[in-house]
What does this fold into?
Amino acid sequence: MTRPTNSYQLANAARLTALTLCHTKNASHIGGAYSVVDILAVLYMHILNINPRKPDDSRRDRLFYSKGHASAILYAVLDEMGFLEGYDLKSDFTKDGSFFTSHVNHKVPGVEFSTGSLGHALGVACGSALGGARFNLERSTYAILSDGELNEGSNWEAIMFAAHHNLHRLTLIIDYNKIQSFGRVEEVMQLEPLAEKFTVFGWHALEVDGHDHEALHQALLLKNRDQQRPTVIVAHTIKGKGVSFMEDSLAWHYKSPNLEQFEQAQRELQGVKTL
Amino acid sequence: MRNSFIDTLCEIAEADERLFLLCGDLGYNVLEKFADKFPQRFVNVGIAEQNMMQVASGLALDGYTVFTYSIGNFATLRCMEQIRYDICYHNLNVKVIAVGAGYAYGPLGASHHTTEDLAMLRSIPNMVVATPGDPLEVKAITRALARHPGPGYIRLNKAGERTVHTSLPNICSIGASFSINSGRHVAILAAGAMLIPANDYIQRQILPWSLLSFPFVSHLDKQALKSIVETHSFVITVEEHQLNGGFGSAVVEALSDMYAAGEIPRMPRVKRIGIPNQFLAICGTQEFLREVAGITFEGADKYVVVSP
It folds into this structure.
């Protein structure tokens, strides 16, 4: 398998893999997969201190992926990065007896924590960051949340906790695609002013275009991180980004592409220039 | 019990620097000795039990042994999904400590009546559910669970309980039970602090009955159950918990399974004493509410039918 050499290649390859997985396995959540993939690509290509050959290395950075439903894209990224040597993701995804469940599973190499029930991973990331802070460990902790799951009260418990304990090595990235499970965020439960909410809760808040790799990279660099407060990156994204007929559509939270849709999406993605 | 717990935890923390204690803004006059001695390993996470379990999970992923402390329902029911999914599914080294078992906080009302926790927690895989019967069992169980590298639950009564054991009980493995009195025909199996009134009852009545403490509700001592059935025809289970799904249910399930598998020759008669699946919306001390709920041995010597 040829490994991607830059984050654009990684994101594009992962989009194509996730497309195949959702089509062949009749799986949902491709919309949320495509909104978060550029964030994952920049993290895995440029930011995370991890080693695919030693996924359990105790010094590794920790990424807690709360968007457990958008599993196909995380598995696809891990596969591109070399974590899944010896596994056949395209065959094993959601297959009877395999651990590639359609909500992420910590049995998969490189997956830090199983998620699927929303509102858990940020608090777990807080515990991880607290342990690191109390014992002066150098590592960084990241959490990726969807926007809709900010409805969960447990997240706000964790948001207060992180600021109170000055967990400055914790970075939260919100995949703000503006659509949740049964409607638009602004209709279901208004989040705005989102960055401001974090600021008044004691966080260092940034807003970026969540599909602009350069902007994401800059926002995630250690040197640009606040030295006292935890950082949140509100990443403005588009659900279904990269495939014209999937973009900004609630339906693609659920639908899996049929053959015609699969072929059209594949043509669009294969036409993307990745340098 | 809570003092026995914290004293034991401080002893363990002295020797094990990977032990953490989190609390949900409760533990006044109890946890200070730990917090003062080990400030780096103590966190009051605030009144946020879901996050307490999440933070505990994050710490445990790094190899820490994490104890969490709060009052009964807040430590358990409020954050049941975090216990199930974050702690138990990942098989993490987190021990949930709940104070205020059953009606221990009786006068505070139904919000503080911890009467469904055993049933809920014993249904979750990987969870070791322990309900110690006296302060010495608290000490032994705290030590045993600190050594056990997976999820655990300790249900504490409150403070000031008498001891039933005359020396520290020996727990060689999770799932131990303890014989308090060796008799015949009738065996009382007690879970948690009901051990104390059960012991008082057989002493007062001068009954030649057996009394055993079964603190591990999720991991019943099957060998002891087998021996009991061989030498007793009537079993009384007692718990300060709803009868639906609690300790008595666990005993009956185990006996039924053993009988079906041919491991015991017959089923004993089993009388379960507990709360008959109801809430109490009245004031009362722990003793009073136990009586009202029907957790009493009153008349037990009459209803017991001993087969020859």
